[in-house]
Write a structure and sequence with these properties.
two-stranded parallel ribbon; two-stranded parallel sheet; mainly alpha; DNA polymerase, domain 1
Length: 312
């Protein structure tokens, strides 16, 4: 246990050393007290700011002198000339043709007449007397003074709309019929689809894209599955469509992988995997209807996908 004795010997102090340590600690405490409380015994020196204040005052004086040089000498404002007083004289007038001088003779001020002339310059017209009162520059009192002299009707005559719709119709007149365009749904290109009313460039591309994914259209109901193609548009163009199911493209469920099968709109990814798994487990499909052996194909789904499937 030599190491314990070494540590004990190193940490032990003699009586003289312990006294020296106590004296040093006392000296340190006294120094700390003096440093922290020296301001109690010594007066604080006063700082002379007189030179600083004098320099600030000098700078402010120079700044004011500079501003005074740049500021223009005020001049006495010119008195606005009052508008020349024109004696009021009422006379018959049409507000659509009266000039500025004529308006001022009727008692209007310069700004009032200019506002009316500006309204007419922009195409404004006065059709009846009360139209003049709609101007912001004409108040109620002024309008009452001008109203007897305005050469405009009090109101517009009512139009007899009944006679417009009682005009006899010529039944012998032939109305040209629109040419009937026939479009082959499974072979038509975008230009042919756009020839139908209600089908634009965007819809024509969507129709062809969906047709290619399906493998061809078999019924009008499938057209309604095209995104953005409204039912009323399908109803309108239906008489102009030609159907030929010989162009239907079928998928071989005995050779295609799942990634190819699930690209069809009616076949989900899970169904494609089940079709392939059943084929690997039971061998090639002998009939298309064998896909109903899987749990994912019910009667309704089979009716939709059967025309697009084949086994050889």
């Amino acid at each position: 246990m030599r190491w314990k004795k070494g540590i004990k010997l190193w940490l032990s102090f003699s009586q003289g050393e312990r006294n020296g340590i106590i004296v040093l600690l006392g000296i340190l405490l006294v120094q700390l007290f003096v440093l922290n409380h020296l301001h109690w015994f010594l007066p604080e020196p006063e700082t002379d700011f007189s030179a600083f204040h004098a320099a600030v005052a000098q700078m402010k004086a120079a700044e004011k002198a500079e501003v005074a040089k740049e500021k223009p000498t005020p001049t006495k404002p010119a008195m606005a000339k009052p508008e020349a007083s024109i004696p009021v004289a009422y006379f018959k007038f049409n507000p659509n043709h009266l000039n500025e001088e004529g308006w001022q003779k009727l008692g209007l001020k310069n700004w009032q007449s200019k506002m009316i002339l500006k309204y007419r310059a922009k195409g404004g017209k006065f059709r009846i007397k009360s139209d003049l009162q709609k101007m912001y520059s004409i108040d109620e009192a002024l309008y009452q003074q001008l109203e007897p002299w305005i050469e405009l009707p009090d109101s517009l005559p009512k139009t007899n709309y009944a006679n417009r719709f009682n005009t006899p119709v010529d039944t012998n007149k032939k109305i040209p019929a629109h040419p009937k365009v026939l479009v082959a749904v499974n072979t038509a290109d975008t230009a042919q689809w756009k020839s139908l009313r209600g089908i634009g460039p965007v819809l024509s591309k969507r129709i062809i894209k969906y047709r290619d994914r399906l493998g061809g259209f078999r019924s009008e109901a499938q057209l309604r599955e095209v995104w953005g193609l409204r039912p009323e548009v399908v109803d309108r163009i239906a008489p102009q469509l030609a159907w030929d199911t010989t162009f239907i493209q079928q998928l071989n469920i005995n050779t295609l992988p799942a990634d190819s099968l699930w690209k069809h709109p009616y076949i989900s990814y899970n169904l494609a995997r089940v079709i392939v798994a059943y084929r690997e487990q039971h061998g090639p499909y002998k009939r298309v209807m064998d896909v109903r052996q899987t749990d994912l194909v019910d009667h309704e789904l089979y009716r939709k996908i059967a025309p697009y499937l084949k086994v050889n």
